[in-house]
Amino acid sequence: MEAYDAFTEGVEPGGLRSRNEIKTLICYLVSHLDTPLTKGQLNTIICEEGLANYFELNQALSEVIENGNVTASSDDNDPELYITAIGKQNTATLENDIPYTVRESAFNAAIKLQTRLRRESEHKIEITRLENGCNITMSVLDGNDALMTVTVFVADYEQALAVKEKFLSDPVTVYSNIISLLMA
Fold this sequence. Notes:
With 184 residues, the chain is of the alpha+beta class. It is built from seven helices and six strands. It has a three-stranded antiparallel sheet.
């Protein structure tokens, strides 16, 4: 069992308390996802799940980049992370040192975040504040073509955000249900 050498503020029970485990989890995520993660996305995934301390995560990321296990794109704002050959090899050797539940939690959170970001880029949502509420306009897009655009009035901005979240959770079902209702 590895010594606990990482800060644990914000870490949920079962989260990582060792710097080496955090480095291994970073490499695991970067190597097992089909699309690259950005540094910001990695922070969101691991910290929101309570898997590691924010400061420890960023220190570990700097170390895996410095050691050549991961490379970062030249985008200074939010670089994309890529696993190197040595990083893949090290990950294959060490990934089982990370508890299965931690790996699954991190991987599922990454997939959920990437799906959400893809949906945000594929569909257009605008919230317009009005004097007595908000209009939220949601468009289901197929490339550049709008398959459907719906504007809904809600009482306040919080409701508009809730509608936006619900729409983004499954825009295809929203589209299908509206079409089904209109064709019935």
